Amino acid sequence: MIAHLQGTLASKTVEQAVIDVHGVGYAVSIPLSTYYTLPSLKAPVTLLTILHVREDVMRLYGFATEDERILFELLTSVSSIGPRLALNMLSSIPAPELHQSIAHSDVTRLQTIPGIGRKTAERVVLELKEKVGRVALAASLDAGAATLDIDHVLGDVVSALLNLGYKRPEAEKAVKGARAAANGDLALETLLKDALQQLGR
Which CATH class is domain 141-199? Predict the structure, then answer.
């Protein structure tokens, strides 16, 4: 099993990073939360990884924190959750909040994730509630507070788009795109403007 990769960042997108390890490029699928932590190209980088083998396909999944990796493993243990949907869940809700949503049976919160309907959300809670209760995430209180602040702004942007008549899935997609292109500028006005530009494309 490949537990981690340490090398230089050869390329990155919101879905994948390529890590150059002594001349060998490893393509690693990543959640948005990990993408935001990646350094500039050619800079040193380390990702925690899971090698997922399915039939004749082997794919690496990478994470910035152990919390993300633990939750990914738990999520993919649910019968209806594959690696792609597990990444989507981690991209939509920060690991500490996702952990709490499952632990507190917050089906409504889980349903806000694109691709997660009520039945799937209920299955996630049913199969993982006790398991996540035994897992203590290592995220610091400071990091959690920062995440909540960012989430509050992103939620306000989504609400603004909903009020303008956009459907939730397209609004959330546009906000994710706006955040990815924000270059650290997470002001509500900037994110809303960028999201509207993406919706107009």
Answer: mainly alpha
